Amino acid sequence: MAASTFIIVPDHPSAPRLEVRPKHFSKIAAEESNPETASASRTLMGGAYLAEQPRTLDATTWGFEGSALVLELPEGAGEEGAKEWLRTDPYSAGGVWDWEKARIIKFRAGVSNPQDLSAGK
């Protein structure tokens, strides 16, 4: 059984997030499309956290501060597996994430779909 991990990882100041984002998204897509990698790790949820709520859809105006994500890692990967995933991600290699300051939290979703509540799952 895979284990879920909730991660909060800050950006470096003046990080080149938007320039590196296509490489980061490509990695996520590759994990999902390759059965061998998908069984090793999957990103269940991810997104940026911001200094304030955006007022436009123009991401160049957003105050990015970091990311929050939920990873599904192989059983036994633990915190070291999560750190390795972060360290090798394009956001870390490209100078966006300060991965050494990431908060790594064991996680189990109680609700991932509101319909689960009414179905008693």
From TrEMBL:
Origin: domain of life: Eukaryota
Matches recorded under Gene3D superfamilies: Dimeric alpha+beta barrel (3.30.70.1060)
InterPro entries: Dimeric_a/b-barrel, Sec-metab_biosynth-assoc
Name of the protein described by the UniProt record: YCII-related domain-containing protein
Organism, as annotated: Dactylellina haptotyla (strain CBS 200.50)
